[in-house]
């Protein structure tokens, strides 16, 4: 499915159901397909969500790709899907975006899972 964020199309994949959603954020150059095998394993117990970050996979490109933009997109996906309780799972650059999103203390965020996150830059 595609959702619209700031007049841009963002491709989202969802599997499973449940009270707690796992929101998967891929690495720079990846796509939601990166997470498909894991989502298939976890979907019997969790609502699994993976999306293509701006300009990757099936999502539309954008003019800006800052970490703040990527964090904004993550939280916009959560809001657009109406997720009440969720965990952000970020790999590499996706981990960096997840960290910034979590630092904003968004409602409903239960935990943060970082897989080899990129180092912060001043």
From TrEMBL:
Gene Ontology CC terms, in alphabetical order: membrane
Residue intervals of the AB hydrolase-1 domain: 21-117
Domain of life of the organism encoding this protein: Bacteria
Keywords for the protein's UniProt record, in alphabetical order: Hydrolase
Pfam families assigned: Abhydrolase_1
Protein's UniProt keywords contain Cytoplasm: no
Coiled-coil residue windows: none
GO terms, molecular function: hydrolase activity
InterPro entries xrefs: AB_hydrolase_1, AB_hydrolase_fold, AB_hydrolase_sf
Descriptive protein name: Alpha/beta hydrolase
Organism in which the protein naturally occurs: Duganella callida
